[in-house]
Amino acid sequence: MQPTATVLVYSDDSxxxxxxxxxxxxxxxxxxxxxxFIECATPAAVIKELxxxxxxxxxxxxxxxxxxxxxxxxxIKDEIFNCPPVLLLIGRPQDxxxxxxxxxxxxxxxxxxxVEFAAALAGLLRGxxxxxx
Length: 133
Hints:
Blueprint: E1 4-10, H1 14-24, E2 34-40, H2 43-52, E3 57-61, H3 69-79, E4 86-90, H4 96-101, E5 106-109, H5 114-132
Parallel strand pairs: 1-2, 1-3, 3-4, 4-5
Helix pairs in contact: 1-5
């Protein structure tokens, strides 16, 4: 049995979380493991899941309310030991500099483009696998 990758998805919008799940499918690329999702709708739930461990990649909604994914990304990069890589969902391409400020490893725009999203997620999963090998 091939191992699975655990992806945490944070958004206060259930439609955004669904876009992420649909864009990923069972796996974002053939050379990465199947994905299991942990969905979070609040910043407190994100921190709780990261403290629990076992997360391979975080997908954070930069447009979430009341706390956006950019601020949460910066916080977890400061506070979580061995923080997993972060894929940030941003509202406009011009917000890419904010994704850099937040220390996210990748960013894609909303609404989620399945091809762009799957490529970015697969890249982070490959990088995570290479680091743990």
